Amino acid sequence: MRVVVLGAHGKIARHLHGKLSARGHSVRGLVRNPDHVADLEAAGVEPVVCDVEAHDDISEAVGQAEAVVFAAGAGPGSGVARKWTVDRDGAIKLLEAARKNGIRRYVMVSAMHLDQPRGDEVFRTYLRAKAEADEALRESGLDYTIVKPGRLTDEPGTGRVALGPDLPRGEIPREDVASVLAEVLDTPATAGHSFDLVAGETPIRDAVEAVVRG
Ligand SMILES: NC(=O)c1ccc[n+]([C@@H]2O[C@H](COP(=O)([O-])OP(=O)(O)OC[C@H]3O[C@@H](n4cnc5c(N)ncnc54)[C@H](OP(=O)(O)O)[C@@H]3O)[C@@H](O)[C@H]2O)c1
């Protein structure tokens, strides 16, 4: 399968590329910064420079594929404005490009507990922006899966997680998030599902299968 990743030089995305290649998929990675092209090429990813805030229509950069992954984010150093232009509008531009290009499958890196306002104004805006992006995706008609991780860490992945519709707050290594994204992409029956994701005891494949079984 051909997969397009937006935010392809992000920390989760860089864990994801190798996992997708190992499963026999090819990856096109959309990056904002041209300096990141060489890193993607070295990882076997086809790089395309695309600043999602600079274009209304990103369908040409997305191209033809079987699935798209939204792994971008304005990041902790950004202000209120970029929560809207990247975290919400970037995700929506990706779904519009997917629809235009006939790509049915969309996997979203969201975040857990978006409906529980907390933190400062910037963080509360981030939560609203992510919630609006998720809502737009649910209403898009696409075959979506919304993965909602807890606080991300750079610890090595364990291959074991907890997945569920409403989990208590927790942490999760970015590498395990990437492993879940890869498993979700290979499990079409996860379409239509949204779930929280934190560290846990269940092997990732079993946890994803359990979500599908309900
Ligand atoms: N931090 C947490 O605890 C937490 C918890 C749950 C969910 N999440 C979500 O998980 C997402 C991914 O996490 P991560 O650690 O992999 O994030 P990350 O390393 O910050 O990666 C985000 C990527 O988005 C890219 N980006 C920013 N603006 C862009 C634009 N205008 N056009 C194209 N790409 C753009 C960035 O590119 P540059 O490298 O050029 O800046 C960066 O490579 C976060 O953004 C967040 O929404 C985070």
Q: Care to count the β-strands?
A: 11
Uncertain spans, ≥5 residues at pLDDT below 50? none
- The number of helical segments is 7
Calculate the terminal CA-CA distance, rounded to whole Å.
26 Å
What is the H level of CATH, i.e. the homologous superfamily? NAD(P)-binding Rossmann-like Domain
Annotate the secondary structure layout.
Elements: E1 2-6, H1 11-22, E2 26-31, H2 37-42, E3 46-49, H3 59-62, E4 67-70, H4 80-100, E5 105-109, H5 121-138, E6 143-149, E7 151-153, E8 160-164, E9 171-173, H6 174-185, E10 193-199, E11 202-203, H7 204-213
Parallel strand pairs: 1-2, 1-4, 2-3, 4-5, 5-6, 6-10, 7-9
Antiparallel strand pairs: 8-10, 8-11
Helix pairs in contact: 1-6, 4-5
What would your notes on this structure say?
It is built from 7 helices and 11 strands. It is α/β, with parallel strands linked by helices and 214 residues long. The protein has a single domain, classed as Rossmann fold (3-Layer(aba) Sandwich). The strands form 2 sheets. Strands 3-2-1-4-5-6-10-8-11 form a 9-stranded mixed beta sheet, sandwiched between helices. Helix 5 links the parallel strand 5 and strand 6. NADP nicotinamide-adenine-dinucleotide phosphate binds next to helix 1, helix 4 and strand 7.
Key terms for this structure?
about 40% helix; globular; 7 helices; about 210 residues; about 25% strand; nine-stranded mixed beta sheet
